[in-house]
Amino acid sequence: KYSTLKQSIIIPHFDVNGDLVGIRQRYVNEDDVNTFGKYTPFAIGKEMYNHPLSLNFYGIHVNKDTINKKRKVLLVESEKACLQSHSMFKDDNFTLALCGSAKISLNQIKLLLSLDVNEVILGLDKEFEEVGSEEYKSWMKHVRDKFVKPLLPYFNVYVIWDTKGLLGYKDSPTDKGKEVLLELM
């Protein structure tokens, strides 16, 4: 949904059982983004609909059956990337959103184990401009330390890593469409 009053996209978050656990908003007005950040908990009056993002994945209630059947998952950063994957793959979508790129939590790992996942594909945003740069090396270390290492004891882990320049800076692997995503995978 869209809030015309707050000029923000309203994003409900549901748990694995389909129960509402929180609501986020994504500001579209650049002044609001600069003041509050892109994403904030949604409020109606004095009621805040925040929730701990590390306890859930966006899209899990919709994609859990496909993930369980395929025993694999594509983890992306944003709700938008999860929705883009849904547009591309419909009922065959095995994507979940982390809602950030800080790290994967033990609670999220437990959720993946409960879905009988054995393969995790990390599709984080491209946080470097030049292959081999310090920014590139720093992002590689972050992905390895905060995602790959915590996941490796439990899953086969693959990382989508654009070295061919198919994505722009800060693009998600889903941003350029299905053909580019499949090539990256």
What topology emerges from the helices and strands here?
Elements lengths: L1 E2 L4 E7 L5 E8 L2 H7 L2 E3 L1 E2 L2 E2 L11 H11 L1 E5 L2 H11 L5 E3 L8 H9 L4 E5 L10 H18 L4 E4 L18 H7 L1
Parallel strand pairs: 7-8, 7-9, 9-10
Antiparallel strand pairs: 1-2, 2-3, 3-4, 5-6
Strand content: 15-25%
Biggest sheet details: 4 strands, antiparallel
Quick one: overall form? globular
Order of helices and strands: EEEHEEEHEHEHEHEH
Q: Kindly state the mean pLDDT as a whole number? A: 96
Helix segment tally: 6
Backbone CA Rg: 16 Å
SSE class: alpha/beta
Fraction of residues in helices? Answer: 25-40%
Q: How many beta-strand segments?
A: 10
Strands of the biggest beta sheet: in what spatial order?
Answer: 1-2-3-4
Spans of at least 5 consecutive residues whose pLDDT stays below 50 are: none
End-to-end gap? 31 Å
Molecular structure report:
The chain is α/β, with parallel strands linked by helices. The protein is 34% helix and 22% strand. It has a 4-stranded antiparallel β-sheet with strand order 1-2-3-4. It has a 4-stranded parallel β-sheet with strand order 8-7-9-10. Strands 5-6 form a two-stranded antiparallel ribbon. Strand 2 and strand 3 form a beta hairpin. The protein is globular. The model has no long low-confidence stretch (mean pLDDT 96).
Based on the model shown, name its key terms.
185 residues; alpha/beta; 4-stranded antiparallel sheet; globular
Write a concise synopsis of the structure shown.
With 185 residues, the chain is α/β, with parallel strands linked by helices.
